[in-house]
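Notes from the 1:1 (GR / supervisor)

We went over the backlog. Supervisor wanted to see one worked example end to end before approving the batch request, so GR pasted a single chain during the call. The sequence is below; no edits were made to it. Supervisor asked that the structure be written out right there so they could see what the output format looks like.
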Amino acid sequence: MASSSVPAPGPPAGPATLAGLTLPGAPRPSELPSVHSALICVALPALVICADHGQLTGRGLEGVYLSGRRLLSRCVLRVAGREPIALQGRRAAADRAVFLGALRTSGDNGPDPGITVERSRGADGTERITLRSSVTRPLRLPVEIALGTDLADLGAVASGRPGPEIFPSVHGTGMRWTADDGRYAAVTAEPPPMDALAAAGLLRWEIELGPGATSTIELRVRADRAPRTAPLPAQGAARPGGAVLAEARAEGDDPRIAELLRTSVDDLRALLQRDAAHPADVHLAAGVPWRCGPATSEALWAARMALPLGTRLAATTLRTLARSQIGGTGPVAGRIPGPLRDAGPYLPPRCTGIEATLAFPAALAEARRWGLPEQDLEELLPAAERCLQWLRSAADRHGFVPDPGPSGPWRAETQAHAHRAALLGADLLDACGRPGGDAWREWASTLRGRFRAEFWLDDRSGGRPAAARAPGGGPWTQLGGWAAHLLDTGLLGGGRYGPGLLDRAETEQLARLLGTPALDSGWGLRSLGAKEPGHNPFGHRAGAVRVHETAVAVAGLAAAGYEREATSLLRGALDAAEAFGHRLPEMYAGDQRTAGAVPVPHPAACRPAAVAAAAGVHLLATLAGIRPDAPGRTVALHPVRSAPLGAVRLSGLRVAGEPFTVRVSRLGLGMVEEAADGLQLGG
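Structure output shown during the call:
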């Protein structure tokens, strides 16, 4: 939503504000229910939240949702009057979970079950229930499914106030529920039930099973087609992800990389959602279940990290954000609006709109290097220029960019984003024949000098960067994962990275600090050092591991030549991914890793989350050190020379719009196996 001014700083946001969810009537916003023990199937705008036993009981957040409304809260299966014994529940894909149960028949001798029950449930609410008999005699089994819903919004469900169940009516081959506002949900069954009891919400069948035979019941959930509601995608039907994100594959000596990349791509596709007014444009939801709103800075960061999978996601995300850009003239013209977000215990909330505005020209410039089509570049360049114009007007007389308002503070992370926007923006302007490139390089050079003078704090241990400064006041000295952004310089032509905000000695000192146990938890980079006052392993800006910052640190350290520190963080993140079933939450506890321990998710973290899924792609691409220059028809390889995961092969990537395959040997040597015609290996 466009705004004419930067919101005034307010009190630090609680976890619910961090999650981007308004909880109507909730007594405390910190009472977000945990979803980390649940199985979540996603194919936005649809999702399913259920327990690993497979029954939808209506407890907590369980249910089938579409566009934030719960269509089905209860789906309890009974066979011969009993619920099957739950044996296994697992996620088979981002949009599908499968469950296995068993039960004994009345004539069975011994402990062996004679009937197995397999359930496959998709994010769209489609469920297939298959009964399989291993009994040597024919069986006649009564099967019943109890259904119910409250048609409540997700916010009301999360706050513990969903409202009463709605009385159903028998409709066609199933049940239908209608809310007071006229919207409805319905469940249809195939084969049609023999009996339907509206008063109890029951569908009943008599199933005949011969020896070794199977029988299947299929349920389908459908909803009203009110204007605000997007149609339910059919299970297995083509979704926008297939055209937007490449079918990348990883293989190598470490078998975990294959599963990490597969899950990351799968989750990114599941998180894609269309712009309602411009259905050709898709962007990533920040995360499920709490943050499925409009495009945000997280969507842009994720699209940037996912550039090895193609440039279309970056183009559509940039196009979506450009439509929200503030027009006209004045100090806020050119800024992309965004909400305030809690910045931890020491700093006031920051503006995500400022973050997105500074990321816009950098993401566009890098997308061009990966092969963004010329027509997309021409369309998006004016918006990038307006972002740079806002940057020039926002920088105060000291040359720093305050965030969120004119009164500051100056955040080190924001200056890093501004420096990268200026440097890559200059590269972009030159490439497109627009004036101003030299002026922006000069501005960036001036910012580097001022930053080192104002933000670098000398001490006996070699010094450290300040987290922020108050205009006319002192520094915030707490060191955390935010410092990784000082190493994120951005991709220029010929496979080069631009100069960083720090000089060589300061970069070396920062690399050493990022590799210490105070910041490297063993699972990734802490958002606040363990020795800093106020450290909290679960503090999302006060000690928790933020996957985005860890991936940025790994890439920045590797590019700067500090492979030991990069490798430690990379291995920690990969181990954490394995512990989370390769679906990383956006943040998890920054406790020091010990033998036998496993990482613990932050209770308010989304999972899947766009930045976490894209970070998996970014980490693996860093191993190969792919630095494309599609306009110059070259691609450079700078793999991690120590080959920390052994041999690695990445296939199905996209450079210059064509398939790209790269292999890194156990000796750390890179080789291109497949590339676009005419694309040369550069230095």
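Supervisor's comment: Residues 38 and 51 are 5 Å apart (CA to CA).
Batch request approved.
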